[in-house]
Design brief:
457 residues, mainly alpha
Length: 457
C-alpha cells in the first residue's frame, strides 16, 4: 500500500495518525470527557478526523485494510445496536437531550472503532498505540498520586469535592480511574510480553547479556511504567478495580500458557518459559512489593468490610427490578436512567441521587433493552475469544502479546462492570472500543510480505 502513496501522502497519513493518538491521550483528561462540553469536543474531534481519514482513503484510492474487510460482522453488530439506540432517541419518551447526547457519543465510539482499522495498519502503529495508552495511564497514576500525597487534590484544573485521600487522577470517580488504569495496564502487559526473547538463553553468560540489554533498552521503561500504574491502581482503593485486575491476570495467564503450547508457529516451546517467569513476576512484584508500599492493605480492609457496610449500590439494582421487567426487551433510550429510576427507588437506596446504575449490564439493558445490548455483548465475547485464539494461531510475538492484553482488558472490564459504570464514562468507553478493535486487528493482521506489514507508515 505504501507504494501507492507519495511522500506528501505518507506525511498526511502520519498526521492523521498522530491526531488519533492525541485523541486517545486527551479523552481521560477533562474529567473522563463526562462533562457536556468535553463530550461535545470528543464528538467533534472524532467526526472531523473520521471525515478527513475517509476522504484521504477515497482520494488516494487506497485498498481497505484486510482486518477491516473481514471484521464486517463486528460493524454489523455495532450497527444493529446503534440503529436501535437511534430509533429510541427519536422517540424521546423520557429525556430528549440525554437521548441525543447518548446517540452522538455512540456514533463517536463506532467511528473510533473504524479509525483503528484505517490507521493502525502496521506493527509499528500497533506498538505506538499501545505505548500511548501506557503513557496515558502512567500520567494518570503519577498525577493522581502526586495530588493525593501533596494534599492539593485537584482534578483537571478544578478542585476535588469527593474521594479525598485516594488516587483519582483527572477522573471524578476512583472506580472509573481504576477501570481505565486496568485497561491500559493490560495492554502494557501485552506489550511487555512482545519483548520476550523467542529462544531461551543457553548459558549464564547469555542470561547476563540479555539482562543488561533489557536494562539499557525500553524494556526497563515499560516495566517501571507498569509498576507505577499498578501502584496508582492500588492507591485508588477501588475494590473491584483491583480485584478485576488481579483476577483477570491470574485467569488469562495460565490460559495463554496452555494455548501457547499448541501454537505450531512457535517452533521453540522453551520460549514460553520466559512468559511464565514474566507473568509470575508481575503477580509477585505487583502484589507483594507494590501493594506493601502503596496501600493494598487498605483495599483488603475495604473488601473485608463490604459485607458489614451498607452498600446502597446493591439496593439500586434491586429497586430497578420492577422497571427492568417493563422495558428489558426494548429499553427506555440512552441516558434515561436518572430520570426513570426515581419513581422506583426505595428507602434502602438512601438519600443519594443516582444518575447511573452502578452496574453497566443493568444500565445498558434498561436504556437499550436486550435488542440493543445483546449485539454489544456478543461483540465483546467474540473479541475475548479472538484474543485467546491469537495465542494458538499467530507466530508474531507482538500480535500474541496484544492478544493477551486484549483478552485481559475485556475480562477485567466485564468483571468490573457488575458493580460500576466504567462504560458510562466517554474516556473509558472510547478506550474500550480501541481495545476491541485491537483484538480484531491482531487476529486478522496480514503477516505475509513487507508491503502489507508496513501499511501507510
Amino acid at each position: 500500500m505504501s507504494t501507492l502513496l507519495s511522500q506528501s501522502g505518507n506525511a498526511i497519513a502520519n498526521k492523521y495518525y498522530y491526531w488519533f493518538l492525541g485523541l486517545l491521550a486527551w479523552m481521560p483528561l477533562p474529567l473522563a470527557s463526562k462533562r457536556i462540553w468535553a463530550s461535545m469536543l470528543l464528538c467533534v474531534w472524532v467526526y472531523v478526523l473520521s471525515a478527513f481519514v475517509i476522504r484521504f482513503y477515497i482520494a488516494h484510492a487506497l485498498q481497505v485494510p484486510k482486518p477491516l474487510r473481514v471484521a464486517w460482522p463486528a460493524f454489523l453488530l455495532l450497527g444493529l445496536s446503534f440503529s436501535w439506540q437511534l430509533y429510541l432517541s427519536m422517540q424521546a419518551n423520557v429525556d430528549a437531550f440525554s437521548a441525543y447526547l447518548s446517540s452522538m457519543l455512540a456514533l463517536a465510539y463506532i467511528l473510533i472503532f473504524l479509525l483503528c482499522f484505517l490507521l493502525i495498519n502496521s506493527t509499528e502503529r500497533i506498538k505506538a498505540c499501545a505505548w500511548v495508552l501506557v503513557f496515558s495511564a502512567l500520567f494518570q497514576a503519577l498525577y493522581g498520586s502526586f495530588m493525593n500525597l501533596s494534599g492539593i487534590e485537584y482534578l483537571f484544573f478544578v478542585p476535588k469535592d469527593t474521594y479525598f485521600g485516594v488516587n483519582t487522577g483527572t477522573f471524578v470517580n476512583r472506580n472509573s480511574q481504576a477501570g481505565y488504569l486496568v485497561m491500559c495496564c493490560s495492554i502494557g502487559i501485552g506489550l511487555m510480553i512482545s519483548t520476550l526473547a523467542s529462544t531461551p538463553a543457553k548459558n549464564i553468560r547469555e542470561h547476563s547479556r540479555r539482562w543488561m540489554q533489557a536494562i539499557l533498552s525500553r524494556k526497563i521503561i515499560l516495566r517501571l511504567s507498569l509498576v507505577m500504574i499498578v501502584a496508582g491502581l492500588v492507591m485508588t482503593h477501588s475494590r473491584m478495580g483491583n480485584t478485576s485486575f488481579f483476577a483477570s491476570l491470574m485467569i488469562i495467564s495460565p490460559l495463554a500458557l496452555i494455548l501457547g503450547r499448541f501454537n505450531k508457529r512457535v517452533k521453540n516451546k522453551g520460549s514460553w518459559k520466559g512468559l511464565f517467569v514474566l507473568l509470575a513476576s508481575l503477580v509477585i512484584i505487583d502484589i507483594a512489593v507494590v501493594g506493601t508500599f502503596f496501600g493494598v492493605d487498605k483495599v483488603a480492609q475495604r473488601l473485608e468490610a463490604t459485607a458489614s457496610e451498607k452498600e446502597t449500590r446493591d439496593d439500586v439494582v434491586k429497586s430497578s427490578a420492577p422497571l427492568l421487567d417493563k422495558v428489558y426487551v426494548t429499553g427506555l433510550g440512552g441516558g434515561s436512567f436518572y430520570t426513570a429510576f426515581p419513581e422506583y427507588r426505595t428507602y434502602e437506596t438512601g438519600r443519594s441521587f443516582y444518575n447511573l446504575a452502578h452496574n453497566d449490564y443493568l444500565q445498558f439493558i434498561l436504556e437499550f433493552g436486550l435488542i440493543g445490548f445483546l449485539p454489544l455483548l456478543l461483540l465483546c465475547m467474540i473479541v475475548f475469544y479472538l484474543g485467546l485464539a491469537v495465542q494458538m494461531r499467530r507466530g508474531d510475538r507482538l500480535l500474541r502479546g496484544m492478544g493477551f492484553g486484549v483478552s485481559m482488558a475485556v475480562l477485567s472490564m466485564g468483571i468490573h462492570a457488575t458493580v460500576d459504570f466504567n462504560l458510562q464514562m466517554p474516556a473509558n468507553a472510547g478506550t474500550f472500543m480501541v481495545v476491541l478493535a485491537l483484538g480484531l486487528i491482531v487476529y486478522y493482521f496480514p503477516t505475509q510480505g513487507k508491503r502489507k506489514r508496513r501499511g501507510l507508515s
